[in-house]
Sequence to fold (894 residues):
Amino acid sequence: MSWVFFTEQFLNGFQLGILLFLLAAGLTLVFGIMDLVNLAHGSLYMMGAFFCAQFYDWTDSFLFAIVLAVPATFLLGILVEVVTLRTLYTRNHLDQVLATFGLILIFNEIVLLVWPLEGLSMPVPTYLLGSVNLLFGIEYPIYRLLIILVGLAVAVALYFLVGRTRMGMLIRAGASNRRMLGALGIDVKRLYTLVFGLGALLAGLGGMMMAPILSASSGMGESVLILAFVVIVIGGIGSIRGAFIGAIIAGVIDTMGRSFLDVFLLLFLPANAAEAAGPALSSMLIYVLMAAVLTFRPQGLFPAKTG
Amino acid sequence: MAEPLLKVEGLNKSFGGILATDNLFLDVLPGEIHAVIGPNGAGKTTMIAQLTGALKTDSGKIIFDGRNITREPSHVRSHLGLARSFQITSVFLDMTNLDNTALAVQAHDGHSFRFWRPARRDPALREPALRALERVGLDHRADVVAANCSHGEHRQLEIAMALATKPRMLLLDEPMAGMGPEESAQMVEIIRGLKDEHSILLVEHDMDAVFSLADRITVLVYGRAIASGAPDEIRANPDVREAYLGEETAAAPDAPTPEGADSRARG
Amino acid sequence: MGELASLRTPRGIFATVILGLCAFMPVLAPALDEPFYITVFARIMIWAIAAVSLNLILGYGGMVSFGHACYLGIGGYVVGIMAFHGVTNGFIQWPLALLASGLAALVFGAICLRTRGVYFIMITLAFAQMIYYLSISVEKYGSDDGLTIDFRSEFGGLIDLEERTVIYYVIFFCLVGSLYLVHRVVNSRFGMVVRGSKSNDARMHAIGHPTYRYRLACFVIAGMICGLAGILQANLEKFVSPDMMYWPRSGELIFMVVLGGMGTLFGPVAGALVFLLLADTLSGFTEHWHIIFGPFLILVVLFVHGGIDGLLGRREAAGG
Fold:
């Protein structure tokens, strides 16, 4: 196996990890602070992709599309929070799961109604086409590299937001002790709405950046959402750091598994067995990882209390 | 002196650097009521939680009937004969009082991998459960759903459930919490009635009840036992008066050593 | 059965009418000139069995499993895969399929039940998704196209599932059997432990119940009953596909249970019936029926406490 290919796949895994982080960050904050299970988080990712593709269609500019889509998903998130989720905070997890499941059905159907064609695609802007030469002759597409850089920037920004600002202090306080916020006289309602909008924005950003690669389609959010769940379980609920590390681990292991597990299995198994078992096993890999983490650390790698 | 039924040696527990239980020594003799008192936040509930296994202990030893149970889970302690009541009522609110108590009986009547016969028609569960309710005077309310019962009745149910596990020792965590004087008096009589068959570790705020019931009293402040002894000794102890009752005037020049009335209190 | 004992209550009448409809549908449907209702009701009863099994852990045990449909898929796929390899003997297929779903439930349950709350929901979902992706990745058994089954399970000439009425009544019998089994189990000592653990697990430990093992056993029983539903579905449709265990199926199962009334014996059956008939009717109007169904689901969750069962009057004691 060539090291160039290996590095490329590693970067692809890293890029998937970044995408998962954008979803998981919002999810984990919403879990941690509001104790809300929001299945519809993937729908916000999907809406981000659709907004971006639609705005691109209107403006013919990738940059404009992003600039418009970011506030659009933020506002959509706030709308969703105010209209439905707000009533769910006091409900049990079961009600939350079901109601947000209902939201998914609605979003997926709205998308089919508004954009009846098979999804909505947009090209990678020409100035981001092509590859850059990283070290040792490794070529990597500029656009994917950009996704990684944006994701890292978001991670750093979030780290400062949560670690250094007043809002971050409230977020952390809320993640470890929800009742305390109310006792401190904080306007909890507004904080919740803001945090939810922020989470929606991050998920939407993920969708926007994926729109040129995947094209927006109904139901695109759910498979990513479930991966983001795995990330949170691995990382520990309520922890941004856990979400980041969990996301990178999950992204890299999933991608590398799909690329190299059959080669790896060839070391132990006859060719036909390895070819048959490779795809099956690699599709299960991160779930096995999750099970392993849970066995040793039921609260995830970075439970919110400590980090 | 008889061998203690429960022996606590150098117990510690800290939460994020704050010591909730601080090198605690304590014992309870067979047939004794040993009361633990202390101001709010003294670590009484933490101590109960450690004794019953609801909280993991940082260091130190808990010995029950000669067996080290420091690392045993709650249900094992229950089977050895250590039962607790909860300070904040913790019963099965959606079940009747009889069902609540029958579940406690069932835990001590073999395993529960019995899938077919209706548990509610099983005299092996119903009769002991009813007897436990009788002992706390709740038998006339056996078929009432717990959620529909009064606070006082919940307190009685708490004790009935503990009794139904056939314990050798009861850990009662503020059994009179939130009770009126009449209900408290009734509870004192109930606890007095239990004394013949059970050793009791009683955590309680109601001083009248404590001083009328207890054979020995330990005073807990900031997770430490500052004094331990007979009710009269405790009443006379100036450290206790100062730390617990806030009587600064008690710090008279002829006060005994800070170690208190009983050397067993501090290691 | 306990709940059916008193036929004069609205609850008893309702249950009797539904079971009666199921029992006589093979006669009723042709008489009404709507023979396809036989298949519709066969499907409803299969989902009802799955919902009854989910209710055992969700309604009585408080375990919010968001991956229950995976046992439906496992049961179905074992039948499909064995048929694919020429093993059509039901005496071999069925026990193996039950064993496989039970085993999967044992492994997943053992890990999931170490956690609580949100974690439990997410992990059950993740494991179900793992099985879903596994079924997609195995090309030999059809990947996402699914696997067609040429012959239904054979029982040495004793029972001929190819006969429409026969397979219908086999399904009916399995539904009634599952209901009776769940009724016995939840009222037994075992069931009391599971319910107690839902109500107050810390107290259960304090009075001496090691609840983990009982909850796990309950999880396995539910997985096996759901596996039975999968066996029946594979036989009825002569087809299995990953879609059987795609995660929305698990969500729909939860909704059936909540719609019918959690922790009530008959609720899940009513929930499955209303859910599937409604889905059938709505999808007859418009292809985009989810746009109506989604808000309906949310409204039910927010405003209908106790589901259909709750509409039939108050219960004396939740434990009853």
